[in-house]
Amino acid sequence: MVLNELGARINGALQALSKASVIDEKAVDALLREVCSALLESDVNVMLVQKMRQNVKKRVNMDELASSANKRKVIQNAVFEELCGLVDPGVQPWKPQKGKQNVIMFVGLQGSGKTTSCTKLAVYYKRKGMKVGLVCADTFRAGAFDQLKQNASRAHVPFYGDYSETDPVQIAIEGVAQFKKSKFDLIIVDTSGRHKQEAELFAEMEQIAAAVKPNNTIFVMDGTIGQAADSQARAFKESVDIGSIIITKMDGHAKGGGAISAVAATGSPIEFIGTGEHMHDLDKFSARPFISKLLG
Ligand code: GDP
């Protein structure tokens, strides 16, 4: 089930509650059944869904509810808060500081939208007045160098890459060193995504991380992948210290489950969502407006 269908289903269940003649435990259970089934069909992990159901029931104390003047509001608020909790790990994303040489490393599978998101983030911070540089440390995918270089030049962001060097760690070290020397505020390192989760990919990420010691590592995940999100996010978290998450392709057929699983598996906050292929299609993420919008 894609994201807007998930929103519509939950909204429908909340509206059904508004119309119910009696608000009792049975009505709350019926609402939760529908909300939980919608979440499961959106590929949210079954344990998370169960936890969410228990949490709503804990929030809505039936004895207190009996005497409450606005039962519907109490229940709807409980569901809203718990949905927010699913996409909010309660941690603030790391922020670069102007005047310091901040390094961000991007990780994620090939095709996730990593290279596109590197440029989007560079543009985002450039507009905030930072001096930003991009480093292409992806020597695996033919064309990665040209893609990032082209994006960088379109965005007027300085770029470092080396066609002839085959060791991505060397490129990352050299690129970061050059930009640091020129007192760049933010240096964004794009890494290889390979095709799938494989040992070489994780070893390479670990080596680059050890060499450039990033201040933050951003995990990029395709918002359309559904059930695979949980294991993918877990695998990346085991190798690198994920600081924050960018979920891409939220303009298309994104599934709610992907974003929710990524947060649950990593304990890291979603900082941005990608909403298109253009360099400006990057939206700051925050849980409450996201859930409000989801519910329409
Ligand atoms: P990488 O292999 O992870 O570096 O992925 P790319 O950055 O090359 O992106 C893969 C494809 O996804 C490209 O066609 C991008 O234009 C597209 N893409 C990336 N982010 C988004 C997004 O937020 N929305 C949409 N619709 N497409 C995106």
TrEMBL record:
It catalyses: GTP + H2O = GDP + phosphate + H(+). The keyword Aminoacyl-tRNA synthetase does not apply. One of its GO terms (molecular function) is endoplasmic reticulum signal peptide binding. Coiled coil: none annotated. It is found in: Cytoplasm; Endoplasmic reticulum. One of its GO terms (biological process) is SRP-dependent cotranslational protein targeting to membrane, translocation. GO terms for cellular component: cytosol; endoplasmic reticulum; signal recognition particle, endoplasmic reticulum targeting. The keyword Cytoplasm applies. Signal peptide: none annotated. It comes from the Eukaryota. Residues 269-282 form the SRP54-type proteins GTP-binding domain. The M domain binds the 7SL RNA and the signal sequence of presecretory proteins. Belongs to the GTP-binding SRP family. SRP54 subfamily. Signal-recognition-particle (SRP) assembly has a crucial role in targeting secretory proteins to the rough endoplasmic reticulum (ER) membrane. SRP is required for the cotranslational protein translocation for ER import and preferentially recognizes strongly hydrophobic signal sequences. It is involved in targeting the nascent chain-ribosome (RNC) complex to the ER and is proposed to participate in the arrest of nascent chain elongation during membrane targeting. SRP54 binds to the signal sequence of presecretory protein when they emerge from the ribosomes. Fungal signal recognition particle consists of a 7S RNA molecule (scR1) and at least six protein subunits: srp72, srp68, srp54, sec65, srp21 and srp14. This is Signal recognition particle 54 kDa protein.
